[in-house]
Write a structure and sequence with these properties.
Length: 212
Amino acid sequence: MNTSFIYRHETIYNLLMRGLYRRHYTERFRAVAALIPDGAEVLDLCCGPATLYTRHLRRKAVTYTGFDLNERFVARLTAAGARGEVWNLRSETPLPAADYVVMQASLYHFLPDPQPVIDRMLAAARIRVILAEPVRNLADSRNRMVAKLGSRLTDAGEGSQPRRFTERTLDALFTAYREQVGESGLIAGGREKLYVLNAQGRMAVPRPPLRH
């Protein structure tokens, strides 16, 4: 089964992602959704099959826009009643404004220099940027077969990405944004780390620590 086939088909993609995250699969979306209030305007970058919207945010009556390279995911999102658009974040086109700008498990695609993407997210956000990124990765496994599977599942169609974040390297990246970080913590059983950044000009408002 090749990478493009996995990423193009929502059911297969979701089943395999559930296999990776196991009982923590739903938790990773809940942690992000809990930070977004009812009626907010949300821009979800690299949204994939838009599980965040269909399973967690639609009930909150948010105005949701999802951007992804995958035309099928975007078409299904539109059919679900939200706005979807095929969008390549590697372009320098400014992002549209939204209250909350979200990215889950996709920042590694922009290594070795992800800061321009974060800066564009902050420029678009009226209230907060929410970033959740894996820090325990199958692609880093010493087992070659496991590492190969991990690389395939996290390839959005642009080719294999050999680099991944660890908690240490992700924390180091966000030191440049320390004045805007409102909270951070591990989620999904420690597999991902979530960072919440306040938009430009907003003071950081600490919240209770995130539960693992």
